[in-house]
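Example complex used in Figure S2.
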Amino acid sequence: MNQMFNQLKSQTTAQVRAEIRACAYGGHTAGLGKNNLQANLAILPADYALDFMRFCQRNPKPCPLVGVSDTGNPMMQTLGRDFDIRTDIPAYYVYRDGVLAETVTDITNLWRDDFVAFALGCSFTFEHALEQAGIPVWHIENNTTVPMFASNIQTVPAGPFGGAMVVSMRAIADDRLDQVISISKRFPMAHGAPVHFGDPAAIGITDIAAPDWGDPAPVPTGTTPVFWACGVTPQVAITQAKPPICITHKPGHMLITDIADDAETTIIHP
Amino acid sequence: MNQMFNQLKSQTTAQVRAEIRACAYGGHTAGLGKNNLQANLAILPADYALDFMRFCQRNPKPCPLVGVSDTGNPMMQTLGRDFDIRTDIPAYYVYRDGVLAETVTDITNLWRDDFVAFALGCSFTFEHALEQAGIPVWHIENNTTVPMFASNIQTVPAGPFGGAMVVSMRAIADDRLDQVISISKRFPMAHGAPVHFGDPAAIGITDIAAPDWGDPAPVPTGTTPVFWACGVTPQVAITQAKPPICITHKPGHMLITDIADDAETTIIHP
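Predicted assembly (540 residues):
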């Protein structure tokens, strides 16, 4: 898998997507499809789609909507020229009644005529911008998953969707804090400015060394823990809403679009 | 009406909304509720809501979604503390089967349990920013309505919604063009950067002196006509989709929210 990953790093988004579609690669996508927007995925039956879309609209920092499929159409036409949502993600989580039921690499057999696919922006975009500005991102340099926590910040509910906002944490050198805030604010489709920095307890986090998802990361002296709204938030909302079926990406195994990282809008005219 | 308008200009958004709710004021809202975000309105039956919301997501420059009501709930809870969409807009257009049927100042008797209200950002926000930067906006200084044109730029369709993008035109001094583009780009919820500047024919406009909506405005020597995506676009999409009923604001008679003009997100936690 690691050798494959290193090969894919230098390939185009179309090439990477072809390998994923052929099930030749099932790993994480951090660092792949460089300069193209990556996104979180949630697929729901149409009965739930309007409420979920309202949930995203009301919570744009954790759930920035970058694309929505037509009902029953697996081609994400506004995000890519040849983008089949059933095969082009390296790994999927299948939730039944709000509970994670299985992990698969292809959902062709599960696809239904009433499914709607939602793509939500992710943090890779601003992390890439931080790296380009010479600001180190610890979990990338150490090849771990960013630490994520269930905060006590409540989302704005919509229908059955609601619950706590999930946040991701990056320790930032105190003297780069202002720069990091202003860089990330430029990417509203990638969670925008942080929702909090400083004392973790202020947003209900009791142990910064014990994330609810992902791997722990150090907060050395001279750095401040900075918290961004996180794309895992809708997965918590889904466990609360308990739809009969919902399919998401496996965390870190994202949807790679044809949209440029710095595009003004996230839409391709089909 | 003019005397009332001058009184309202110095009042708070809550006071302005109370006068509109009491039907004491039915005029345009340009210059009212200063520093608060204003928005276009579209109310549709729930059967059309998911497709319309997809239409807005796919066309974020003409249709930037700033708020969506719960189905059947006339209180726009994410846009204001006490905001009744049935009474708090100065004037409404009622479309039946895609045709403008009547203009009213209150829709309480028309409201239905299956209605969903959509608020879409408008150009007042960036015009205000241009004025603060010392850039004159001719139609404001001359108390006319901005000229609007049906362009040949096609929207990205969603279900029955589609059609041409409507654009608004402001003539900008050639030496301020870069500044105007960069200021307006900062307001993605108010149409963002222009979609075109220069030759009107390039986007299908044959006579710059004869707008399809609004009033003509001059393009003096030393200025460039600059075109922004316009919030009238969804009204064209609605005449194409022909829903049995649809209610919009009367152009210029906007919804005034409690959201700050420069807020990072357009959502109040109810």
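The two ends of chain B are 34 Å apart (CA to CA). Chain B touches chain A through 31 residues (CB under 8 Å).
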